[in-house]
Structures are given as structure tokens and as C-alpha cells.
Amino acid sequence: MMRLLEEQDFKSDSEANRFLAKLMVSGEPIPKTRPATPLEEAQDLMVRAFGARGKKRIQLARQALEISPDCACATVLLAEEAAKSPAEAVEYYTAGVAAGERALGADFFRKNMGSFWSMIKHLPI
User: Fold this and answer.
1) CA geometry: angle at 46 spanning 24 and 96, to 5°?
2) Distance (Å) of CA 51 to CA 44, 77, 82, 104
3) Which residues, other chains included, contact 52 with Cβ-Cβ below 8 Å and sequence gap of 6+?
4) How do residues 86-114 score in pLDDT, each as one tens digit?
5) Predicted TM-score of the model (pTM)
6) Measured over all CA atoms, what is the biggest interatomic distance in the chain, rounded to whole angstroms?
7) Which of these, 100, 58, 97, 93, lies nearest to 79 by C-alpha position?
């Protein structure tokens, strides 16, 4: 959805809201957009992973990391569902922090550390 909105050239918030309202009442599926980067492709795969169950979730997270090692949410899913020990979970989480820093840029990462959850639209899934 964010990619679809970013592809539009809205002149105002009102114009964006009209676009969204029309999209919602049309009853048509939300138009799909193509990932522009490997990270976006990996994020799309993670949307599928979050909707999957069991081992499929882990499989999709690993595939996402193969596509882009900067997909932080894939490492979080693996920490929570694939780690066989607390030490292994810490390794996944540490890799996730590094992925987030690479994806967001070191300056952005340092400047906004501690407030990422309030900035969801800027964060890789």
C-alpha cells in the first residue's frame, strides 16, 4: 500500500484521502506494485511469511534474507521462531539491528534510535 501511495503524485492530503476512499469503495483488489529493490522484494515475501504458519514462515524468512540480507524483520522472525537457544536468538537480533542500520543508513539509524516504532512508514518491514 505504501508503494502504491508513493507512486502517486498527490498535491495535498485531501487528494490522497480521496484516492484511498475511491479505492476502498470500488470493491476492486488493491493494485499490485512491483518491488523496486531487493529489499522491497524481501519485504513482500515477509508479508507472506507473517501470514503463513509453521515451518513455512521460517522458510519464507530465510528466502527473504537470501534476496536481501537487509531485511530486518526476517531476522526477527527467525530469532523468535527458529532460534534453538537464547544465544542463537541474540545472534539473529544482532543481525537484525545491523540489517536495519544498513537499510536505513547509519546517520538516520543513530539519529532516530529509540523511536523506530513511531516511524513505521520509514522502516523496512
Assistant:
1) 130
2) 11, 12, 16, 25
3) 60
4) 999 999 999 998 998 898 888 887 888 77
5) 0.69
6) 51
7) 93
Task: Tell me the CA distances in angstroms from 39 to 20, 54, 74, one per residue in order.
Answer: 25, 24, 11
- Contact, 49 vs 60, CB < 8 A? yes
**Whole-number Å distance between alpha carbons of 94 and 55:** 22
Between residues 29 and 13, the one the model is more confident about: 13
For the chain, give the secondary structure using H, E and C: CHHHHHHCCCCCHHHHHHHHHHHHHHCCCCCCCCCCCHHHHHHHHHHHHHHCCCHHHHHHHHHHHHHCCCCHHHHHHHHHHCCCCHHHHHHHHHHHHHHHHHHHCHHHHHHHCCCHHHHHHHCCC
What is the rounded CA–CA span in Å between residue 39 and residue 65? 9
